[in-house]
Every structure is written in C-alpha cells, then in structure tokens.
C-alpha cells in the first residue's frame, strides 16, 4: 500500500528504526490540505491548501503496526491523490488526526520537521510555514 507521510515519518530512517521497511520513496504534495502542527502534526482539509510529504510503499500490516502506537493511535486513514514532483499522480493513504484532536503547540517537533523538510528540498514557502510553527 502507498502511504503519504508528512511530518517526521517522512524520514525513512525513523520508519526503519520502528521496524517498517518502506520502499519507493518519492516527494510529492496533496492539494486541498494544509499542515497543522499542534501537540502533534496533521493535515487538515483546507481549500487552496497544499501540503508536502513523501509517498512510500509499506505493507498493510506495517501500517497497522505503525499507527497502533499510543502517540499516533488517534490518526485515521484517508485516501488522497498525491502529485509527485514529476507531475505523476498516485493514489495513497494519508493518516490524519480528526480536527477536534488538533490542540496545543510543539516547537521541538516543528524544529525537527523543519530539518527533515529542508533536507528533502521542499519549497521555501512551505519551510517558512513550518518555521512559523517553530516560533509560535
């Protein structure tokens, strides 16, 4: 199954450390969503929004294992259309928090996410958005 990862799960090394074996990692974005960094990160539907991340192939069992952890157990799967940087569109699953579970702020998470997003070469405007969450 293809999963659209945003946040720290974009880092393949983190997934591997959790026993997940991702393959076929490709950078892309989803339109109609915006990144929201609260105590945890999620994508929320937002007309005109664009959120960047990484599509990776993992098994259904690996997805179940990954999202069974207490820290991410509230995330729910949602189908998305990902536009890869070469313009190709792929269907994927994105795990998001319900809007009512998005609370607080987490500067440390935003700082770590900014490092990953910078390494992946995301657009400056997106890096600025993450940087703002780091300052809030």
From TrEMBL:
One of its GO terms (molecular function) is transferase activity. SUPFAM superfamilies: Gamma-glutamyl cyclotransferase-like (SSF110857). Keywords: Transferase. It comes from the Bacteria. This is Gamma-glutamylcyclotransferase.
């Amino acid at each position: 199954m293809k999963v659209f990862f945003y946040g720290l799960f974009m880092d393949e090394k983190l997934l591997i450390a959790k026993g997940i074996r991702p393959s076929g990692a490709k950078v892309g974005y989803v339109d109609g969503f915006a990144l929201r960094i609260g105590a945890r990160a999620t994508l929320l539907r937002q007309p005109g929004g664009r959120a960047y991340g990484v599509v990776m192939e993992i098994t259904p069992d690996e997805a179940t294992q990954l999202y069974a952890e207490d820290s991410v157990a509230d995330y729910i799967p949602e189908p998305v259309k990902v536009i890869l940087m070469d313009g190709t569109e792929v269907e994927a699953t994105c795990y998001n928090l319900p809007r009512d579970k998005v609370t607080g702020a987490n500067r440390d998470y935003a700082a770590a996410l900014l490092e990953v997003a910078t390494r992946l070469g995301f657009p400056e405007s997106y890096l600025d958005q993450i940087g703002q969450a780091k300052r809030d």
